[in-house]
Design brief:
single chain; alpha+beta; two-stranded antiparallel sheet; 9 helices; 69% helix
Length: 237
């Protein structure tokens, strides 16, 4: 049961992330073709407001696809609108942490104004600082990387401690998703923001944007495969 709960928390954090992208797209008037929960082949969905809302085969992931006919159509969208669109996911994850921590504080320390309105902000900053401080270790100590398998395995122990553990894990994973997505890797939101800023300074940058994004995805897939293999080897002892 604890494994299912951890998978649910991960899926919920990803859903919040993609919803953030969708909401910001609506705010800056970027039309959206597809909002997918999951990756890969489409399993089920419906259309509303010109957008295809669907569930795809691979549950760990998702995407919000702008409605464009070609690469040139995408680049015709204002760079600043695209930056806001990229920021939407991380912003949604960070905002969602506040009510989670408010409930956590109430469950562990009792009801108080500080626990609901003030302490969650400080705790969120603490989470962010802690995760940012570990980012260099991803490159200096890659043997300690954990993928989805490791997160589910370790998270199941935390969730088994009760409601407080479940809420703490949900807050940590949401902040983690926001911070890691802001890394300047082309396939991530941070990389998209960086490349859009470079495009605004030097328009010819667009010629290498797609190849860089592909390299970024290949890098992330390689990291995921490596991390998963490390998780499995640790689980096997």
């Amino acid at each position: 049961m604890s494994y299912i709960l951890v998978c649910f928390i991960i899926g919920l954090a990803l859903l919040v992330h993609e919803t953030g992208h969708f909401v910001l797209a609506q705010m800056v008037k970027i039309p959206i073709e597809r909002f997918s929960v999951g990756l890969g082949p489409r399993l089920w969905g419906f259309r509303a407001g010109g957008t295809d809302f669907c569930i795809s085969l691979i549950p760990f992931g998702g995407y919000v696809l702008p409605k464009v006919e070609s690469e040139n159509d995408f680049f015709r969208i204002s760079p600043w609108k695209r930056i806001w669109f990229s920021l939407g996911g991380p912003m949604a994850n960070l905002v969602s942490v506040i009510p989670i921590l408010a409930v956590f504080n109430t469950a562990t320390k009792g009801l108080s104004a500080a626990g609901i309105f003030y302490h969650p902000l400080l705790q969120s900053v603490g989470y962010i600082k802690g995760i940012v401080s570990t980012v260099p270790l991803l490159f200096s100590q890659p043997q300690n990387l954990s993928g989805v398998v490791g997160i589910v395995s370790q998270g199941s122990h935390i969730v088994s401690t009760g409601l407080a553990g479940l809420l703490a894990l949900a807050a940590f994973l949401s902040v983690n998703l926001a911070v890691l997505n802001l890394l300047p890797i082309p396939a991530l939101d941070g990389g998209q923001i960086l490349m859009t800023l470079l495009e605004a300074i030097w328009p010819k940058w667009n010629k290498i944007r797609v190849p860089l994004s592909i390299l970024g995805w290949l890098f992330l897939i390689s990291v995921m495969i490596y991390a998963t293999s490390r998780d499995i080897s640790r689980l096997l002892g």
